[in-house]
Design a protein that fits this description.
This protein is an alpha/beta fold. It has one domain: Vaccinia Virus protein VP39 (Rossmann fold, 3-Layer(aba) Sandwich). It has 8 helices and 11 strands. The strands form 3 sheets. The protein has a 7-stranded mixed beta sheet with strand order 3-2-1-4-5-11-10, sandwiched between helices. Strands 6-7 form a two-stranded antiparallel ribbon. The chain has a two-stranded antiparallel ribbon with strand order 8-9. β2, α4 and β3 form a beta-alpha-beta unit. α1 packs parallel to α4 and α5 packs across α7. The chain is globular, with a radius of gyration of 17 Å. 36% of the residues are buried.
Length: 253
């Protein structure tokens, strides 16, 4: 069996080049749900966040934390990568904004991390594909949310992730599995950094949400728009036919 890369170290290694790639997210002053949008100002997936207590699960370098805090939320961000969290903290400090950051693997997050029913909203953007036990995590996150609390997250669309290979494509959607791939270092095009993610079906994600006590309000498969633009033209053309992103808007029962 192939050994999984250390995803925290992989993100640490790619962190500097990643910051340059996502800088437009901060210039836009909006929250982007996936590589090509939609922007939250268009999608309106979460209610106003002013004075709300918000948890960002897998916050990375903090664009969502920054946007939430800018709009008056009291934010806590969790991520596995120390280097990404350092970038997030620097961004908040330069913007004279406050947030709490915790370095933690989401697969090791426990109910004891926070007081039960202490958050109004949980947000996650492109982090759950790295989580081995999604049902367990959903149950933990549910315990943090107040009744009727909101839970909105995006991740790689399972259909997009089911397509493998570059020269000869192979489609395998129904078999859930771990997939090995590489980050491209955007500062050095020839350098790649090992990574992995978990492929699971859309129904598996939906059923895990239901089993964890969530009501799924909407599932969004956004049509790509280049104004969301942190991808490239080849990926954009593919995303016009095969969705890159899936978004779940949920409420705790």
């Amino acid at each position: 069996m192939k050994q999984k890369p250390n995803i925290a170290k992989s993100w640490d290694r790619v962190s500097d080049s990643w910051q340059k790639r996502i800088e437009p997210l901060f210039l836009r002053k909006d929250l982007l749900w996936g590589p090509y949008g939609p922007w939250e100002s268009d999608a309106k997936l979460i209610s106003p966040v002013k004075n709300k207590k918000v948890l960002v699960a897998g916050c990375g370098s903090g664009p969502d934390v920054w946007w939430l805090a800018t709009n008056g939320a009291r934010v806590t961000g969790i991520d596995v990568s120390p280097k990404q969290l350092q970038s997030a903290e620097e961004r908040m400090r330069k913007s004279n904004l406050k947030a709490v950051f915790i370095q933690k693997d989401l697969d090791k997050l426990q109910r004891t991390q926070f007081v039960n029913k202490s958050f109004d909203l949980v947000v996650s953007n492109y982090a759950f594909q790295y989580v081995r036990d999604l049902l367990r995590l959903f149950k933990v996150l549910s315990s943090f949310l107040r009744p009727k609390g909101e839970f909105v997250f995006s991740l790689d669309h399972p259909v997009s992730c089911a397509i493998e290979g570059k020269t000869k494509l192979r489609v395998d959607y129904l078999n859930e599995r771990i997939q090995y791939w590489s980050f491209r270092d955007w500062n050095a095009s020839t350098r790649t950094i090992p990574a992995y993610s978990y492929h699971r079906t859309a129904s598996a994600i939906y059923n895990a949400l239901v089993d964890a006590g969530f009501s799924v309000e909407r599932i969004i498969e956004p049509k790509p728009t280049m104004k969301g633009g942190i991808g490239n033209s080849r990926e954009y053309k593919k995303a016009q036919r095969i969705p890159e992103t899936i978004i779940f808007q949920c409420i705790k029962k």
